[in-house]
Amino acid sequence: MARILITSGPTRQYIDAVRYLTNASSGRMGRGLALAALELGHEVTVVTGPVEVEYPEGCRVVPVVSTEEMLEAATAEFELCDGLIGAAAPCDYRPVRIEPGKIAKTGEPLELRLVETADVVATLGAKKGGRWVVGFALESEDHRLRALAKLERKHCDLMVSNGVAAMNSLENEVEVLTPDGQVVGQISGPKDEVARGILAVIAERLIR
Amino acid sequence: MARILITSGPTRQYIDAVRYLTNASSGRMGRGLALAALELGHEVTVVTGPVEVEYPEGCRVVPVVSTEEMLEAATAEFELCDGLIGAAAPCDYRPVRIEPGKIAKTGEPLELRLVETADVVATLGAKKGGRWVVGFALESEDHRLRALAKLERKHCDLMVSNGVAAMNSLENEVEVLTPDGQVVGQISGPKDEVARGILAVIAERLIR
């Protein structure tokens, strides 16, 4: 039995009072992982961005909006957990400045200067100590190579690699990679089934 | 009995294969307006951006993603209608260039050059002929003044003015303004009730 932290869903980075940058992550993969982890008897906490899906009863849900809030909440929760599954798709750019009102249109172009947000999985991975970290990599090309580079940079014990088609879809097709580049799982199907497959790999390799 | 076109929900302007600019419009006001119009015996077509709400049975729903798609679909549907209620919150800026893949993070700031999208209500209003047009104005300050300016610029017959708090909320508080600046309705409550009030004003003033 492990205490598992799952991050899930997108985050939003507001540029003014109304408009924001985000992505189409639905939270379905995170919900599937929570369900699969609960089925195996683990304790589950989900830190989630704004989504319409409902997480299973029996897990603790911490709702957040921005990537900064997700990092703060996940950092606090990770203290109490044995491992992290970073299934969220945090918005990874934020405007340098957030306008307090609604930017009025002027007819002129709007120059938006964006900087990278902190990487939630990399930040937690860097101070994981004896805990395990499983990351997700969503790539439009060179999936395996880029996923392995992310695994290393984010101090992950396993990396789940999937394509852009996974986003806001009911199905998924993933590879699970180890730090030495082995493919220890190739799973496709409905997201709940894929989640069970990923949890099985985690149980075998990371949870003693 | 009138044939009414309702635009509803947000739109998305993608900056690459994954990330997009949008807003938190839920489509609930549009759904309420569709319901209220159907209750009064009108024919209803809804052109909607990506939302989770379900529109009432009995209306025709045309789903779109971007503001360009909303304008194209609404232009085609408006040909067949007697009036337009523009309740959507189309994303009003788009990147000059959409990257085909997922922009890889480099650690450097990302400069995004945005230009205004075409204004759906203003475009249809400019060629409305004998048809009527009702707009919505969402303002963070100077509500009434800015709403009247929009009414004129967008060739509307009525303008519904509401504040930023309306967005993704279950309730709303609106003023209905005429071209000569009269307030002919002040309605607050659940969005379905507010929608009935707006339809009553439209029926009295615009539908013969």
UniProtKB/TrEMBL annotation, chains A, B:
DNA/pantothenate metabolism flavoprotein C-terminal domain location: 3-204
Query: One short Pfam family name for this protein?
Result: DFP
In terms of InterPro entries, this protein maps to: CoaB-like_sf, DNA/pantothenate-metab_flavo_C
An annotated Gene Ontology molecular function: catalytic activity
One GO BP:
coenzyme A biosynthetic process
Which domain of life does the UniProt lineage start with? Bacteria
What's the name of the protein? Coenzyme A biosynthesis bifunctional protein CoaBC
| Organism listed in the record | Botrimarina mediterranea
Designated gene of the protein: coaBC_2
